Amino acid sequence: MPARNKVLLFNPRSANFKYRVPNSILNIAASIEGMYDWVIVDGNRENDPAEKISSYLRTGEYKYIGFTVMPGPQLKQAVAIANHIKINNPDTVMIWGGYFPSQQYKAVLQSGYVDFVVNGPGDHCFPRLIDALENNTPYELIKNIIYKSGDDIVKTAKEDLIEQDTLPSLPYDKLDTMYGMEKYLGKTYLGKKTFAYHSSIGCPFTCAFCSVVPIYEARWKAKSAQKVYEDVKYVKDKWGADAIEFHDNNFFVSEKRAVEFAKLIKPEKMTWWGMARIDTMTKFSDASLQLIRESGCKIIFFGAESGNDAVLKQMDKGGTQSGEQIAAFAARMKKFDIIPEYSFVLGTPAATAGQVDEQIDFDIAFIKKIKRINPSTEIVIYIYTPVPTEGSGLFAEAQAKGFQFPQTLDDWISPHWANFDLRKNPLTPWLTPAMVDKIRNFETVLNGYYPTVTDIRLSGIRKAAIKLLAAMRYKVNIYQYPYEIKLLQRVWKYRQPEIQGF
Ligand code: B12
Ligand code: SF4
Q: Residue 250 sits in which domain range?
């Protein structure tokens, strides 16, 4: 009889198109490569992932099931399939990792079908946990795990961040045998074959609204520019990647690393994109910005958050970011022909409803000012949704105003909360439906007047038609009931970066 210790790793569906290399689960596969046999089931690439998983389980060889889980649609598929697996295969061990289970571990473990949560990076702890379970040795001292012991929930200590260059290379070739790599290299605004790569973990800042903070606690570790270049070059040479999407929370923390990478990648003639902070990049020299652009970096995503300095303080944006700096930087980016993609977070709590509303109006006016300064600035608008950061003033304020997370996974996947996950309707008690409408209607008009360049499906004529309609409203600040714009956007399937990613 074959040994029953194989590992099945599942990436629940997170995208309807533009499939990306499933980096979260691939890192976990890399961590056990050569030690345990593993397969990946990618929900993005399967019509019926539950059946695919069942077919593996029917071999009787799989004991450990790992799920990576983000909130939203991915959670919905994870819940349904995990439940099904545990009912039909109660002797499998179910391990969830990723941002959602790390933060909402109580709801996850109380579901009854998840045995362990990996809290933060799983690269060391996952193989150690499997070893312990295989050899019947204690797992209680393994760092980064959370589990139930009787009625208690036990959280083990957090591991220091791993030196990223010591991690094994990702098993792209093996992934290719399960799901052709070519399909992971999608057509985007950046290129015909866009490769998603994650070159650093964590972030050195502690913004109060950000889900990176409770897990990484202001820590950041990066792969060297040389290692990043080698990995990218491998995928370029083997599968023809011509563009890179860096999925790091904060790619540009180190000017030195960014410049080194730019020098290495420049001869490869690839287009690339990453996420950054405005105050960090304000300090980059002109020569660095010039080189970064020349090396193929065409667009950078920045967390602008708000033009209001008091709100930036409330968000604990840290660093030196200010409204004035956000505006000045948008102007500076014009010189280098780099498109700044500014993301704003509207709807933070305030003492009175009137103040909440005023802040929204302030930022709407600020966004219009940024567009006047540099019309090519891409704007992404989120509504503030709390994240459970211990000790964060903003989260405490949200709780004091009556905000509460759902207690069970079934509540999390209810239609109500699914909208919360997509940051569409935050269910925060201080935001009235009229305020949510105001934000969304402004967004509709703005997107109509300035359609995103990242939408490669919407033709020039269609964009122009929507723009014409939206111009009438944008110029005179009338945003209510923009049904005519919505209708055209729906018919022509306008792409929303805040939902569909970047
Ligand atoms: C790529 C990405 C996406 C892609 C999905 C790509 C795919 N795989 O198909 C797209 C664009 C679709 C997407 C969408 C969303 N995303 Co997203 N996404 C990311 C992003 C940028 C990278 C994820 C990644 O690959 N990381 C690289 C790997 C190596 O890191 P990792 O995931 O942390 O994995 C490590 C550990 O967490 C752990 N681990 C992870 N999984 C597992 C599994 C097991 C079994 C184990 C043992 C360990 C383990 O070990 C790994 C290695 O150390 C992250 C931010 C980030 N930089 O991580 C956000 C992020 C995960 N997304 C987030 C959110 C909220 C969303 C959305 C729900 C909302 C939104 N507006 O963005 C949507 C909707 C999702 C859906 N449709 O279901 C949040 C999650 C926050 C939270 N509280 O949980 C993040 C953190 C962004 C942020 N800062 O807000 N996303
Ligand atoms: S700088 Fe960005 S990634 Fe870092 S804590 Fe702030 S919002 Fe999160």
A: 185-431
The angle, 0 to 180 degrees and rounded to 10, between the axes of the packed helices 225-239 and 255-265 is: 30
Which of 211, 221, 250, 282, when mutated, tests ligand 2's pocket best, judged by the most ligand atoms within 8 Å of its CB? 250
Which helix (H) or strand (E) segment holds residue 172: the answer is helix 172-178
pLDDT at 489 over 80: no
Res 430 pLDDT > 60: yes
As for how many domains the chain has, the answer is: 2
Residues 146 and 197 in one domain: no
Q: Is residue 281 part of a domain?
A: yes
In a domain, 173, yes or no: no
In a shared domain, residues 191 and 336: yes
- Ligand in closest contact with the CA of 104: 1
Which tokens hold the place of 285? Answer: 């020299």
With a 6 Å cutoff on the Cβ, whether 421 touches ligand 1 is yes
**186 CB under 6 A from ligand 1?**
no
40 pLDDT higher than 90: yes
For residue 464, what pLDDT is reported? 81
Residue 55 belongs to a domain with what CATH number?
3.40.50.2300
| Mean pLDDT value across residues 161-169 | 98
Give residue 70 CA to ligand 1 midpoint distance, Å. Answer: 6
Strand 145-149 and strand 152-155: the pairing is: antiparallel
Q: Indicate if ligand 2 lies below 6 Å from the C-beta of 250.
A: yes
Of the candidates 224, 225, 217, the one whose C-alpha atom is nearest the C-alpha of residue 166 is: 224
Same domain, 144 and 191: no
The model scores a pTM over 0.90? yes
Which residue is associated with the tokens 């929930």?
153
User: What's residue 416's pLDDT?
Assistant: 75
